[in-house]
Design a protein that fits this description.
- The chain is of the alpha+beta class and 267 residues long.
- Helix content is 40%, strand content 24%.
- The chain is built from 7 helices and 10 strands.
- A 6-stranded mixed beta sheet has the order 8-7-6-5-9-10, sandwiched between helices.
- A hairpin with a 4-residue loop joins strand 7 and strand 8.
- Helix 2 packs antiparallel against helix 3.
- The two termini are 25 Å apart.
């Protein structure tokens, strides 16, 4: 999904009565002190019921039917996905299905509901401004992990691992531990391996940098974060043509991917 295009599409919507656009930002963050008991369920129920009560009083039966149709879609999506909620849920919907946007994000929102002629995209735009298409590059000696992210959500990840016999970087779509590989540092005495790596690190990282630049261009990254040992990250940054937004001096290659994203979000 191209989030920029989605936002522009939502911004262009204007519907006359009895058609309306439903906009919802729901805080589902389990780490939020106000969400410890799953309070988002109450906020969702109250938000939907408030519109229903208002439309009942308004007396427009066509608009009421349209809202019921949207309400059913929203409730079904929540029921099917609530076990996988992250920090927030954002939904835009119309009764005729011309608009249906439902995404779970790893970024916080303020809970709000709208039923109006236009989609309320202000919060979504702020989220995108703070976390556009972003590349997170994790370094740890001869292993480099690439995370393609947007709005705090992982879109794709891949690994590069240096074959110390051929001095070539091999690319994997999964963790290299799951892929067949030849002899590497694990067959080399630790001290000997360490000395060899330190002596050749700059040159080896220089040979990988063009591939990282190409990834950044192909994925249209607006920001790039390097995560890893300071000297390794500095070498990688110095060899890349693309500008690096920031460096996080932590070894997080083996950390769960959402923890890495949270670390970058907090920068």
């Amino acid at each position: 999904m191209d989030m920029n295009k989605e936002i522009k599409k939502l911004e262009s919507v204007y519907l006359e009565k009895p058609q309306r656009v439903f906009s919802m930002y729901l805080n589902t963050d389990p780490s939020d002190p106000d969400q410890q008991g799953g309070e988002w369920k109450i906020h969702l129920k109250n938000g939907l019921n408030n519109f229903e009560s208002y439309l009942q009083e308004d007396g427009d039966s066509d608009e009421k039917r349209n809202f019921w149709a949207v309400k059913e879609k929203v409730e079904n999506f929540v029921k099917e996905n609530e076990q996988n909620f992250r920090k927030s849920l954002v939904i835009f919907a119309t009764a005729d299905d011309s608009i249906w946007f439902a995404e779970r994000f790893q970024m916080p929102v303020e809970t709000e509901f709208h039923w109006e002629e236009t989609a309320k995209v202000d919060q979504l735009k702020k989220m995108y401004d703070s976390f556009p298409k972003t590349g997170i590059i994790l370094t740890q000696k001869e292993a480099i992990k690439i995370m393609d992210t947007e709005l705090g959500t992982l879109k794709d990840s891949q690994m590069f691992e240096l074959d110390l016999n051929t001095e070539d970087w091999k690319q994997y779509t999964t963790h290299p531990a799951q892929a067949p590989k030849g002899d590497s540092s694990r067959s080399t005495p630790q001290e000997q391996y360490k000395e060899r790596f330190e002596a050749n690190r700059y040159r080896w990282y220089k040979s990988l940098a063009p591939k990282l630049d190409k990834l950044a261009k192909d994925r249209q990254w607006e920001r790039i974060y390097l995560v890893g040992d300071k000297e390794e990250a500095d070498d990688l940054r110095d060899n890349m043509n693309k500008e690096v937004t920031d460096i996080v001096n932590k070894n997080m290659l083996d950390h769960e991917e959402m923890k890495v994203i949270d670390e970058v979000v907090s920068q």
